[in-house]
């Protein structure tokens, strides 16, 4: 199976562009912003200002290209590596940063933004996306739910249960597997004996699409069709986005222990941002000054978000008791009093 | 008004919830055409349709995970798992997601769903069908755990669970489904979650139980009454959050406490109740708190199950020890 490709590595159209140049510029700008955030995130972690950080460098097209096909009120359920998609769909930099700073307020996106907090457990959230879309269908709404997961997650039982439920009930769910080649130290070749992940869709009775995940336009084309199918009542689709995790699993990990550097260099030549830049430049829709402005604008946005997140008033020491239920139970209130007694003089 | 069983009362509650709130949907294995393995959802598919009463593939994680997604999107799903012993494939969904979505989203997303699960032994069922591992879920933050013991409680507690803004694991004692019938109020009513009930007031010793054990405790209390002992019986009704006040008030009054739990002994509900009593009512106690429980063994199969399950004799004997203590 050859992956769907619209842009060649050197930025030439080899298929029909699903979006015009203006929209392509908008998505290019989003990829630049995402990479700016991602590099800032790694840097902040090294400075001890963020807890563990999961880089997504190399996966910007897979995330932005797919997220761009959603309507503002559609649902998204992703993972800790899907910051670009989540941000594009309305989760703020503040949300993302607070989450990585270890503050539960990060998990609450602005009203109207239907993005679940990033799933840390692998695979379980795919089923939530099935339920989200299913509920919308039962309520008579045409919202769809898109879920992101990695190649490693396809080994989880919940991948099977989610795919099976979605297909059996025809739920409006779009499954986007970002096959980035690695599940921490485990290469894709050891994850499954299937030739592709996309082909697993056939066994569930849904379409499976293999797309070049580093091709922004291919991702837009593949996901746009899947979203249209879901919204139109034709059920779920699995999209396998072939991409590569350029960084380690997280900042706690040293990929050099298990991964040959040649692969990374090879994939760097297929960088998703470079490819769109070449395309736009060829069409006379790019210049260095514009990209510099994008970078500095995104840098300033992220920097401002970092400042806000770091200066946000601390959570009250007993806030944990308030987040468990709509109203804290009597048992939790007793434990709150116990916390006050033990830590003394808290308010 | 006629007398009905717990099974019938639960069916009425579900029927009423489906009729009264279009956000309510039922989903689970065999809940539709067959009306569930215990026929609790009997007739509901016919009355409310296949989009409200949903037969699912055999996948407990899928059922609970989908119910969570539905709840986040604004429905009020009531999921059924066929037996407590089959709930473990859904454990990750319950512990890692159902009980956490409110916390991890700082109240932005919530999970007002109910997971109904028949539990407990006493019917000589196959392996895995007699589990009473409710302590696992009572130990889990973010979910509530409710266990009715009577038909009237079953209806009112289930309607309260469906209306609750937070996830409720609703455990139905298999042995009590059709054991007794009683007059159950008609119409919609709720019984507050988190409140225990003094099932029988008394002065000499407190017997604390829930679910199927309540009938055995009642029989033990009758025996004790014949011996001149006035036992107070408390039905916990909710295991999480536990109603400390009712427990402590009774313990302080009688000074003697027996906790009766069908589940395994170690790190279980009886241990928790005993701990609450000694923390809050130690100086009222006239005897050590007695635990009458299942053992730390796999629930034996039919031929020897009776040796595992606490019964009236063991309960009465424990009460006598407490009275002597």
Number of helices of chain B: 12
Strand content of chain A: 5-15%
Distance separating the two termini of chain B = 46 Å
User: How many β-strand stretches of chain B?
Assistant: 14
- Computed Rg of chain A: 21 Å
Largest interface here, residues on each chain? Answer: A-B, 43 and 47 residues
- How is the biggest beta sheet of chain A arranged? 5 strands, parallel
Task: Describe it.
The complex is a heterodimer of chains A (347) and B (325). Helix content of chain A is 47%, strand content 9%. By secondary structure, chain A is of the alpha/beta class. Chain A has 2 domains: 21-314, Thiamin diphosphate (ThDP)-binding fold, Pyr/PP domains (Rossmann fold, 3-Layer(aba) Sandwich); 316-347, no CATH class. In chain A, helix 1 (21-46) packs antiparallel against helix 11 and helix 4 packs across helix 12 (288-311). With 325 residues, chain B is α/β, with parallel strands linked by helices. Chain B contains 12 helices and 14 strands. Chain B has helices at 6-20, 44-48, 60-72, 91-98, 101-104, 134-138, 151-163, 213-226, 244-254, 269-281, 305-308, 312-324; strands spanning 3-4, 24-28, 53-55, 76-80, 114-119, 144-146, 168-173, 182-183, 197-200, 205-209, 231-235, 238-240, 257-261, 290-293. In chain B, the strands form 3 sheets. Chain B has a 7-stranded mixed sheet, with helices on both faces. In chain B, helix 2 links the parallel strand 2 and strand 3 (53-55). In chain B, helix 8 (213-226) packs across helix 12 (312-324) and helix 9 crosses helix 10 (269-281). The A-B interface holds A 75, 77, 104-105, 107-109, 116-117, 121, 124-125, 127-136, 138-139, 145, 157-158, 161-162, 164-165, 168-169, 320, 323-326, 329-332, 334 and B 25, 51, 54, 56-57, 59, 61-62, 65-75, 77, 89, 92-93, 96-97, 101-110, 141-142, 144, 165-166, 194, 240-245.
